[in-house]
Amino acid sequence: MSDLHNLSVKALATLLHTKEVSAVEVATRFLARMGGNPHNAFLDIDSEVTLAQARASDAKLADGTAGPLEGVPVAHKDVFVTRDFATTAGSKILSGYRSPFDATVVQRLRTAGMVTLGKLNCDEFAMGSANENSAYGPVQNPWDTARVPGGSSGGSAAAVAAGLAPAATGTDTGGSIRQPASFCGITGIKPTYGRASRYGMIAYASSLDQAGPMARSAEDCALLLRAMCGADIDRDSTSLDMPTEDFSATLNSSIEGLRIGIPKEFFGEGLATDVRAAVDGALREYEKLGAKLVPISLPRTELSIPVYYIIAPAEASSNLSRFDGVKFGHRAKDYTDLVDMYKKTRAEGFGNEVKRRIMTGAYVLSHGYYDAYYLQAQKIRRMIADDFQNAFKECDVIAGPVAPSVAWKFGENANDPVADYLADIFTLPASLAGLPGMSVPAGFGAGNMPVGLQLIGNYFKEAQLLNAAHHLQQATDFHLRKPQGI
């Protein structure tokens, strides 16, 4: 079957369970497409491991013990540790590192029957908005290889958009699932903080990091999210003790009367006209479907940027202190004593953006600045969360753009790192509040580049978001369009 790479997760699962195709056949098809590593999306591929998993899935499909997603391929962002593939987090300091265990998210998807295709490129330690910060080279956007795919889960978004994998895992700290999903024209969802275990996910900012799925449709994301989520309180202190939820159960429920909040702060100065046109078009579709648009305000939206870029670097400066060349990863060859080894190892192993954020974090946590910066940022973070709760008194979900523009060209912000930071203005507030949010393909902008519509829900309302996204995708075909040649 020549078009296997264009099929959805659900379609592949159906074909596999009815034995119209084998897991080995599906895996072989995707491995062939991955040959030569198009778009520099993958950092580690091992066809022997993948085919061994596929053969194991075929055996389960044959004897009736198959999981719900048995034999369906998936690729993992390289911040999830894996036993069978190297894990680098896109950094030289972890070059060649092999974990003795699998991250909980990896383990759960494997339990559901999914076959691992490999590890996906990402911004170093998930720090970036363009995937230009990977130590192993940038990922190319399949829609235009001269443009960025978004970050930090750029490899995940590019792999799905290019038909190299039907699904991928990503992580979202300040928008790193939603923004690359928007830039590459796919669907991605960040669940409520704590819904998916962080065990085995290399930490960037512990109070913000959250795992989520990336695929072509809301329907596929619902299947993946069900497999990924669930309590893991014995291994992750931030895991929520909540039962697994079937996010597909209400996909087709009516959205008649759904109140969609439109924050005025998301549609002001700085939003590109082409992005606004696509988002407005998607909102009109919702009105046709019976939803009601409600004007709301999120007054502290602009403050999310300074708040995030104080809190996240502060947590990163602590989390990344473990990478020192002592127990694992890169170690400098020549040094005079232990302190010299630390300095040289970290200087050689970390990239510029990681160093920048470590230094920023150390500064805001230092004596004399902790109260002035870090504590104040935490107070405003609470206010941002309160703004959302006030808004949800008037609406059920919140909608707006994912990013102010479509994907930019490589090097466009090379001399201005703050420009990348500003591109996260619409995704940061939900991350700071710990709310679920997703990106849904909503049209195309300048250069025929994809535009995503962001949907934000209240805590634990992932099913409602997926329901709203699914209805938009039933009414439009933006999620079905593919880059030329795919």
TrEMBL record:
Its EC number is 6.3.5.7. Keywords: ATP-binding, Ligase, Nucleotide-binding, Protein biosynthesis. It comes from the Bacteria. One of its GO terms (biological process) is translation. The active site is at K77 (charge relay system), S152 (charge relay system), S176 (acyl-ester intermediate). Heterotrimer of A, B and C subunits. Allows the formation of correctly charged Gln-tRNA(Gln) through the transamidation of misacylated Glu-tRNA(Gln) in organisms which lack glutaminyl-tRNA synthetase. The reaction takes place in the presence of glutamine and ATP through an activated gamma-phospho-Glu-tRNA(Gln). This is Glutamyl-tRNA(Gln) amidotransferase subunit A. It comes from Limnohabitans planktonicus II-D5.
